[in-house]
Structure formats: C-alpha cells, structure tokens
Design a protein that fits this description.
The structure is a single chain. The protein is of the alpha/beta class. The protein has 21 helices and twelve strands. Bound molecules: adenosine-5'-triphosphate and magnesium ion. The site of magnesium ion has 3 residues, from helix 7.
Amino acid sequence: MNPTILIVDDEQHVLNSINRTLRRDYNIILSLDGKSALQILREQEVSAILADQRMPGLTGSEFFHEAIKIQPDTTRVLITGYADIEAVIQSVNDGKIFYYVEKPWEPEDLKLVMTRAVERYQLIKHNKELLHKLEIANQQLSSENIVLKRDVEQNYNFSNIIGESKAMQDVYDLMRKVIPTDTTVYISGETGTGKELIARAIHFNGPRKEKIFAAQNCAALPDTLLESALFGHKKGSFTDATSDKRGLFEVANGGTVFLDELSDTSPALQQRLLRVIQEGEFQPVGSNNTANVDVRILSATNRDLLKLVQQGKFREDLYYRINVFPIHVPLLKDRMDDIPLLADYFLNKYMLQAGKEINGFSGDALKYLLSINYPGNVRELENIIQRAVILAGNEQTLSINHLQTEWEASKPMITLQTNLQSDIEKSTLPKLVEEFEIKYITQVLESNHGNISKTAKDLGLSRAGLYKKLKRYKIN
Ligand SMILES: Nc1ncnc2c1ncn2[C@@H]1O[C@H](COP(=O)(O)OP(=O)(O)OP(=O)(O)O)[C@@H](O)[C@H]1O
Ligand SMILES: [Mg+2]
C-alpha cells in the first residue's frame, strides 16, 4: 500500500491541485481545516502532513503543534503563501516542521519534498522497530547473563564446595595455589567425589573466568564424534559433517577446556591432544589448516592413569603433560566429618527445589548417614537426601525411614565381634581377611536362616561366588 499523506488547506482548488500532483504515488487524504485534520490523525497512520500556514481557525503552525502530540513521527511540511519567514520560523519552533514549500510551487519540487518527507518517516519507523528488537534482544541477553552469572556464582563459587575436613582443606590449599596460574591441572578421584565441581571452581575463580569453560566427557562419544567435538571439522569430512563446525578448543579460546574421563580416549586422539597441549596447535577434522589456540587444560578421570600408562593403554608423554599439577579428591569415607555439613547443604538444596519445609534430621538419621558406605561418594549422599526430601511430608523431620531404601531396610544389621588389635598382632593380612570373611559370611548366613540367594545379595556376591567361598572355607 502507498504511504498516506494528509493535506490541509482551506482552499479547495489548492487541495485539488496538490492531489493531482501526488495521488499517483500516495494515498491522499484531504482536509479543509486543522480541526478535522487532527481528528483524522487520531484515526489513522499518516506518513507526512502538508499544511497551509494561513487558514481560518488553526494556523498551520498551531495545527502542527497539536499534530505532534498525536503522531509525533509524522513528517510535517508547511505551505507558505509568500516568503513569510516569521511564520516559517514559528512553525519550525512550535510545529517542528521539517520542510516548507513556497507558493506557487513547481509540481516536481513538491514531489521531491514529499518523497523526502515520506522517506524520513519510514526511516524513523524502521529505526524504532530495530530499536525495539534490539531492546528485546538486550533484555533477553541481560536476563540470560544474569542467569549465567547466578549459575556461575551459585554453582562454581569456591564456597559452594562443601567440606571443612582436613582432607578437603588440603584440596583447597592446592586449588588456591594453582588457580591464579595457567597450569594444566589433573584431578583424580573416584566417582562422585566432586572432580567436576573442583574443575569448574578452578576456572570460575581464575583469571579466565570471563571466558568460556568448555567441558567434554571423553567417554560419552565415539572416536570420530569426539574428535570433531574437540577440534571441529570441515564440511564433508565424514558422513554426518553437513557443514563446518567449530570445536571446543576453538570455542574456548582464551578460556578453559575440561577433559572429563580422559582415560577413555583412543591412541589417535591422545596424539592430537598431546599436540594441542604441547604446541597449542590443532587441525579440524578434514582440514589442512592448522589453528592456534590459547586454552587452559583441566582434566579428570576416576581411573588410575599411571596404571593405564604401565599397561600401555595411555600415552606416557601425554600423561606427563596432563599431570603437571595433580589434585586428588578424597573418598567421602575419608572425610566423614563433612557428612553432616553436606547432608544439611543437600537438604536445603532439595527443600528449595521441592518447595518444602523440612525440620532437619533426626538423631538416628544422622547416625545412619555416618554409618553407611558410600561407594558413589558425595553423589550418593546427595541422591539419598534428594530421595528422602521427596518422600518426606512437609514440616517433617527426616528419619532413617526416609533415608533407607527398601533393600537396605531389609538388610540385617550386623556388628562384627572381632578384637582387631589383638588379631592383628598375631596374624598376616591374608589370614586376617580370611578370618573376617568366614565370620561375616557365617553371621549373614545365620541371620538369613541359610537362604543362599538372600545371603549372596546381602554380601554383594553372585550365588556362584558365595558357593565358592562356602566351599573354600568349609562353611555349612
Ligand atoms: N564437596 C562438595 N560439596 C557440594 N557438592 C558436592 C561436593 N562434591 C560433590 N558434590 C556434588 O556431587 C555430585 C557429583 O560431583 P561431580 O560430578 O563433581 O563428581 P565427579 O567426581 O566428577 O564424578 P564422576 O567421576 O562420576 O564424574 C554433584 O552433584 C556435585 O555437585
Ligand atoms: Mg565427573
């Protein structure tokens, strides 16, 4: 649709003449006085107004003065009868006119002025739209930033690693020393001990914290995909490579790459990692171009890397490049005094998530948490508490019943009667273990009234495994 121009003049023949000049290119509205013209402005969008200065009732500049309040962006053009400079000045000031046309005008001049007037309006409109989009994008961005920041502050802040035990203090000391540097850090420790949490804390408290922290679980992807995830690929370099892709090393340039489960990598990938760590260089899959990057490398495994080196399953040179600054995260069992703190922390976390109010742990519940084994370490404790919060009713106190799984509840509670100190003095380790096994198996067997399947399950053995031991120790 053509842009709309409103023409206001008290003389019908002037209106007609302007209409003839402009109607081919515009949608024209004619008005004989300022008052009805204002009404039109209230009702429809107008790109430009062309109004005569000398009119009975409202003058041109008085009319514009009001028109601004209705459609401020419309381009205002004044028609003056003679070189009425004062009226023009007044209109510029009061009516904020952009152009003026002197009577008599050449049709081509009028056309040109109106073309500019309409263009100006369209530009303003377009700008406003862009600005609006930009504002929305900005709002989104800043809210995302806030989320990200909060995420960073909440999850990766040093203070969100819970634990005051000596074992954890030692970890913090190492972290504090290595955080301000660019040193490659290798984090070892069993599953669920908090290796990733520590890796994030190292990045988000260090000099690269404003840059990207890119984590890759090396065990999660088959070789080709892992290579392309880390180093990127050129379009067509393998079947699914339908476009160029940037790898994590490139994305995280200036920041940190966290190689999780690093032990699960092929020799070819280890070779590539060695190069990027040694030279800061790599080639995207299927590309002949070498890229340079500056990334800090953190890595973690829950396996014994040195042993893998000795078995020839992990490159020795890479091992030494990775293992510049080792941090070992202790088992939860070796920092039992952190359990109450951790339990409280997770209770709060999941209470908030569930929108429940829970009155802490009963004495027995805490004792229970301190008595059990945690093969899954902190993650396991976290899971137990998460489950308990789901089970518990609002305003309840968490009891053993909430913490135990059914299977654990049916397990016989057994306390072994061994006088370890005197046993140790007169025995060797294999002998001790053997005695312990005999005593323990016998007790569990008795408490299960000789039920083999149940005993095997309670002991964490297969039926065949249990039979073997019964036979070896001659237990009936
Ligand atoms: N000291 C701690 N304080 C608070 N939360 C912890 C702590 N240690 C671990 N967690 C929590 O326990 C869970 C497991 O931690 P994380 O993923 O860091 O372990 P991981 O050592 O990387 O385990 P895996 O070897 O299985 O990958 C996470 O939810 C983490 O937030
Ligand atoms: Mg992990």
